[in-house]
Amino acid sequence: MGMAGGYEVALVIARVFPAHGDFLKGFLADGMKLPRGPYPGDKMKYRSKDVVEYTTPAQSEGLGTQRGVRPNATPIIGVAILTPAPMGLDLLSVRLPRDLAAPAPAIVKQVERDVAKSDREPR
Question: What are the structural domain ranges in the chain?
């Protein structure tokens, strides 16, 4: 997990955060081609206009494989969280062996809480 650069933020916004389409205008004006809409197999659960939990199914390309993780026989779950100006992104992808996968949803929830808490703290 970690903060992403501007181009990666734009890719994720184009895929899963339509409410933030204004952020893409500069990239599109520079001639960048950005995909639109979620990956076909991904399941999205929106927590707010800035937070989405996702599942990338086994053997599929999706948000969970966007950072170079290769598809395999195990699904990936995670969360994408947009952070306030300057626009940033925290992107978590969790893939655990099936016999250890039970805590993965709790890991995602804890990251959501931690990012929300850090956004409220003065900088």
Answer: 6-120
